Amino acid sequence: MDDTLLCPICGNKFRNVNLINRHLYSVDKTANFVERTCSDGMNHVLQLFVDTSTGKVDFMKLSLNPKYSKYLEIDFLNQKCRINCMKDGRTVQYINIPKMLDLDFPDLIKMKERVSLYIVFS
Predict the structure, then answer these.
(1) CB–CB of 60/81 below 8 Å?
(2) Measured in whole angstroms, how far is the alpha carbon of residue 1 from the centre of its chain?
(3) What's the whole-number mean pLDDT along residues 72-95?
């Protein structure tokens, strides 16, 4: 995914934090990253980790509900996804998806429905 300065869901401007020589464990890569975060619109939190040398998004984390108990993590480098959900409010369940989900921005409702089906059938 290409870098963007605006949230693909709500269009708000991202808040940026430069991460110099940071190891991003989720993709097992060390680089200079920009962390772009949106939490301003429509009950979502979106984080992008952009490799500053390539201008590409390596990793994305997206909240899927207003209680922030379900997250979708997208690893663009390794072409896989993971769903994190709190079943009882304390225990995190991880559902690994060995492929990329189709991202349909800004239609967050379809993406939430697709992730909910993964959770039900896991």
Answers:
(1) no
(2) 12
(3) 88
Q: Name the DSSP class of 2.
A: B
Amino acid 69: pLDDT: 82
Cα–Cα nearest to 36, from 67, 2, 69: 2
pTM exceeds 0.90, yes or no:
no
In this prediction, residue 42 carries a pLDDT of: 64
The alpha-helical segments, DSSP class H, found in the chain are 108-120
Distance (Å, rounded) from C-alpha 80 to C-alpha 76? Answer: 7
DSSP assignment letter at 110: H
* Distance separating alpha carbons of residues 73 and 47, to the nearest angstrom: 9
Neighbours of 104 (CB within 10 A): 12
The encoded tokens of residue 11 equal 């269009």
User: Taking the C-alpha atoms of 93, 94, 95 and 101 in order, what is their torsion angle to the nearest 10 degrees?
Assistant: 120
What pLDDT is recorded for position 102?
80
Smallest Cα–Cα separation from 36: which of 5, 12, 8? 5
Structural domain spans, the chain = 15-120
